[in-house]
Design goal:
mainly alpha
Amino acid sequence: MWRNLADLILIYAVLTPTFVLYGHTTTWLLDRWLEKSSQQLMVGFVSAVVFAYFHNLFRRIVPTSSSQLFVYETAYDYVVILSCWCYYLGCRTIYRTILSVAVQPVFVLFIAVVILIYLRGFRNVLSLPVILHNDASVERYRPISTLTFTASIEPTC
C-alpha cells in the first residue's frame, strides 16, 4: 500500500481536480460557443467521423522532430477530447427529447442500461468522453470503438 502512496497522492490531489477543472471549463466554453445541444451534437458527431475517417492522413503527417511531435500529439489529443466532450454534451438533446414525451428519468436510465448492456459497451461508454488510444501502435490516430472491451483490463481482487 505505501509504495502506491505517491501515485495516489498524484492522482487524487493533482490529476483528478485538474481534470474536473478541465471538464467544467470545457463544458462552460462549449455551452457558450455552441449554445444549443443540437449544435453540439452535430459538431461532435461530424468531428468524430472526420477523425475516424481520416486517421491514415493524421498518421502520415506526423512531424519527425521530437518537439514538433509532442506539440502535434498534444494538439491532436486535445481536439479529439474536445470533439468527444462536445458530442457528449450534445447528447443532452436526446435526453431532453425523451423527457418531453413524459418519460420519467428512471425509465430513461433503465432503457439506456439495457441498450448498453445489449451492445456490450457499458464499461467503455462510462469512460467517455476521454477514451483515447495513447500508445505507440500504428492505430494511434484512430479512436477506440466504445463497443468493444479493452483486452488489457484485468480484474483485480
